[in-house]
């Protein structure tokens, strides 16, 4: 998987959040986009993942030397963010089944042990509305990582996780996302320790 950004910029009203972003992302490397809250790093991650629209510039996607069309992008990527809404009227298991009606399961895990692997054993039959914020984040991350994809995008992945949850998250990436393209938006070093390349959002700030 290869992603190429050429002259990407994002503007809200008259203010440029970032501009002249020219970057190349290549599997199986792992990248972090860092910066404080409100700096635009999540916005940039969304643009890279094809779920946002830039104000200028272009993003190109390629896998196995073949270009990926905009319509196909979603089938190649897996995205997780703490602001993603989960349907509270479903149980965890029902959401698991619903999700994988549309996406292919990764080949490296036993789906019968999914809730055990995200450390929510015995919680699959509980309605999501009764999940704590940390449980919801484990569920989001598990669904993301155990989806078959060419690239994985994680936005502030340890939000609402306690110390035990952070260790689980780090082990999850080391074990299951070691041969894929991974891009993390973060302001906490514990989240991106696995990354090979660290990029600062401030490198793409402009006063114009």
Low-confidence stretches are none
Terminal CA distance reads: 33 Å
Say what the CATH topology is. Rossmann fold
How many domain modules? Answer: 1
Overall outline: globular
**Largest beta sheet: what is the strand line-up?**
6-7-8-3-9
Oligomer: single chain
- Tally of separate helices: 6
Major beta sheet summary: 5 strands, parallel
Order of helices and strands: EEEHEEHEHHHEHEE
Structural class: alpha/beta
Q: Regarding CATH, which class?
A: Alpha Beta
Mean pLDDT: 92
Features:
26% helix, five-stranded parallel beta sheet, Rossmann fold, single chain, 27% strand, alpha/beta, 6 helices, four-stranded antiparallel beta sheet, 208 residues
Record the SSE blueprint:
Layout: E1 2-12, E2 15-26, E3 30-34, H1 41-48, E4 56-63, E5 66-67, H2 73-76, E6 77-80, H3 92-102, H4 114-117, H5 133-145, E7 151-155, H6 163-176, E8 181-186, E9 197-200
Parallel strand pairs: 3-8, 3-9, 6-7, 7-8
Antiparallel strand pairs: 1-2, 1-4, 4-5
Helix pairs in contact: 5-6
């Amino acid at each position: 998987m290869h992603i190429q950004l050429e002259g990407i910029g994002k503007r809200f009203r008259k203010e440029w959040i970032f501009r002249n972003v020219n970057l190349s992302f290549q599997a199986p490397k792992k990248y972090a986009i860092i910066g404080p809250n409100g700096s635009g790093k999540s916005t940039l991650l969304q643009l890279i993942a094809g779920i946002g629209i830039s104000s200028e510039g272009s993003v190109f996607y390629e896998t196995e030397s073949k270009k990926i069309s905009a319509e196909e992008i979603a089938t190649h990527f897996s995205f997780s963010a703490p602001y993603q809404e989960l349907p509270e009227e479903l149980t965890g298991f029902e959401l698991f089944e619903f999700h994988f009606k549309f996406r292919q399961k990764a080949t490296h895990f036993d789906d019968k042990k999914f809730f055990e692997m995200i450390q929510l054993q015995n919680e699959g039959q509980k309605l999501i509305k009764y999940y704590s914020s940390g449980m919801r984040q484990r569920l989001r991350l598990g669904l993301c990582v155990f989806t078959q994809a060419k690239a994985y995008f994680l936005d502030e992945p340890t939000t609402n996780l306690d110390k035990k949850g952070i260790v689980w998250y780090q082990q999850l990436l080391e074990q299951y996302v070691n041969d894929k393209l991974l891009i993390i938006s973060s302001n906490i070093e514990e989240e991106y320790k696995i990354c090979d390349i660290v990029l600062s959002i401030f490198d793409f700030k402009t006063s114009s």
